[in-house]
Amino acid sequence: MHCLISLRVYTIGLAFRFVCFPDFGIFFDFFGWRARQSPPVSESSSVPQMSAGLEQAVRALGFAPARALKRDIVSEVWVLEGPEGKAILKRSNLGPGRWLTLGLLPRLLASREQRILRVLEGVSGVPRVLASVDGRTFIRGHVDGVRLRDVETVPAGYFPALVASLEEIHRRGVACIDLSKRENLLVTTDGLPALIDFQASAYLRPGGLGAFLFGWFLRMLQRGDIHHVYKHHRRHFPSNPIPEPTAALTRGTLWARLHGTFLRRPYVAVKRLFFGRTKG
After folding, report:
1. DSSP state of 173
2. Looking at the DSSP assignment, which residues form a beta bridge with residue 202?
């Protein structure tokens, strides 16, 4: 009986995560489609295998493929060479669920991420959109840096600068949501923060009807962003913690706690049960 209840809670939680923040990656990972159909592409790959049609469209915009960072059944990420230097191409693939969504979901995800990046244009550490290739492919600026999880010594000014960028991001009506993973944060060559993945982010136009109706939920997600920043700071600077958040901010971590308890932990447990431990 206990196992049945736990399975029901997990199923409801997974459905809530999927409906509210439609990212097919978690769904494909669970069923193992990604691993079976497309082996990961090494970052050192020197021979990109970009489709002829996509490469032709990219070259028509003045860019040339350099190497693949990621290519699987869910999405593709490529490093491009352009007139102003390196750029990043992101493409949402149709995936095995195309017969259910008629190809609309990849276009929705790409369109939403482009919109958020355009809303955040000018914010320190956020790349800007350079061009739209098609309905599910766009090109954004490249950021030279190292993932936070791979940095042993983080510059002292990194986290204060990250908090300042997040304050501006939140002021523009965006919640990053996925900052619990340090691979979504970069340390640039100047020692400053950069945020590179907004596919799972939420946006409500300030002053709009959506913000009026659901602004309370967006603010909870935004306070969860700040919670993860404090958590990462404690990991890298355990002997020099920054001041604790206010009581209101602490209460705002409810989303982070619910996500970790009812979604993240059960998902990881079931995934490890069927597929074992994976890196990352």
Report:
1. T
2. 175
Token digits for 19? 């409906």
What pTM did the predictor assign?
0.72
pLDDT 10s digits, 203-255 = 999 999 999 999 999 999 998 899 899 889 989 988 776 665 554 455 545 55
Q: What is the 8-class DSSP label of residue 179?
A: T
174, 201 contact by CB (below 8 A): yes
Q: Which one, of 63, 64, 71, lies nearest residue 93 by Cα?
A: 71
Nearest 5°: the CA angle 270, 34, 261 is: 30
User: Per DSSP, what are the bridge partners of residue 85?
Assistant: 82
Candidates 132, 129, 130; CA nearest to 118 is 129
Express each pLDDT in 35-68 by its tens digit: 334 444 444 444 557 889 999 999 999 999 999 9
21 token code pair = 């923040």
Contact 182, 152 (CB under 8 A): no
